[in-house]
């Protein structure tokens, strides 16, 4: 294929040279669904691993119910204010 300037294009697809096999690995619906499913499961695993200690250990800082309420209140207030920034 010639361009309008009369020069040959440098290399069609040079930036993305993949074999036909590699193209099918990344573009099949089954593999896309599998990657999405694995990512979704890992999101919830890491979310659970991080958030359960974060929310549970905060309540252990206070020994009275009023103190626990105050810790929870500041946890929510600071969390919302930091996420708003």
How would you summarize this macromolecular structure in one to three sentences?
The protein has 85 residues and is mostly helical. It is 69% helix and 0% strand.
Q: What attributes characterize this protein structure?
A:
3 helices, 0% strand, mainly alpha, single chain, 85 residues
Q: How are the elements arranged and paired?
A:
Elements: H1 20-27, H2 29-59, H3 65-84
Please describe what this structure looks like.
The protein contains three helices and no strands. Helices cover 69% and strands 0% of the residues. The chain has 85 residues and is mainly α. The chain has helices at 20-27, 29-59, 65-84.
How much helicity do the residues have?
55-70%
Silhouette = elongated
Task: Note the beta-strand portion.
Answer: under 5%
What would you call the structural class?
mainly alpha
Query: How many distinct beta strands?
Result: 0
Domains counted in the coordinates: how many? 1
Q: In sequence order, what are the helices and strands, one letter per element?
A: HHH
Query: Mean pLDDT, nearest integer?
Result: 75
Query: Tell me about the biggest sheet?
Result: none
From the N-terminal CA to the C-terminal CA, the straight-line distance is 52 Å
What is the overall number of helices?
Answer: 3
Poorly predicted residue ranges: none
User: Using only CA atoms, what is the Rg?
Assistant: 27 Å
Oligomeric composition of the shown chains? single chain
């Amino acid at each position: 294929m010639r361009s309008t300037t009369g020069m040959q294009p440098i290399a069609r697809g040079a930036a993305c040279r993949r074999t036909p096999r590699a193209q099918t690995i990344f573009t099949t619906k089954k593999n896309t669904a599998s990657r999405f499913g694995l990512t979704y499961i890992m999101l919830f695993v890491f979310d659970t691993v991080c958030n359960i200690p974060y929310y549970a250990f905060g309540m252990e800082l206070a020994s009275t119910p009023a103190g626990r309420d105050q810790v929870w209140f500041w946890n929510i207030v600071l969390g919302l204010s930091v996420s708003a920034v």
